[in-house]
Amino acid sequence: MYVCICHDIKDTQIKTAMLQGVDSVEALQSELLVGTCCGCCMPMVQDLVDEHHAKYVAVDAMAV
Q1: Which of 36, 38, 51, 53 satisfies CB 3.0 to 4.6 Å to 57 for a cystine?
Q2: How does pLDDT run across 36-46, given as a tens digit for each residue?
Q3: DSSP of 8-30, one letter per residue?
Q4: Which among 17, 47, 20 has a CA at the least distance from the CA of 29?
Q5: Is the pLDDT of residue 59 over 70?
């Protein structure tokens, strides 16, 4: 599904980037340019980042 129409970025691209360590809104803006044009995608980008952190950061914390 498209997240950022301005820069032709799909949710799968964002999820892949986050798994590679690009896991903040600011880092995604720098790496993929999401939210750097009209900004309409920012709520969805933030939701994806929040979901990623809830899923993967919580798992990392439990492993320690």
Answers
A1: 53
A2: 999 999 999 99
A3: TEEHHHHHHHHHTT--SHHHHHH
A4: 17
A5: no
- Residue spans of the domains in the chain: they are 1-59
Tokens representing 42 are 């920012």
Per-residue pLDDT reduced to its tens digit, 21-32 = 999 999 999 999
Give CA–CA dist 19/55, Å, rounded: 11
Residue 38 vs residues 2, 5, 22, 29, 35: alpha-carbon distances, Å = 15, 9, 21, 12, 7
Query: For domain 1-59, which CATH number applies: 3.40.50.300, 2.60.120.230, 3.40.190.10, 1.10.10.1100?
Result: 1.10.10.1100
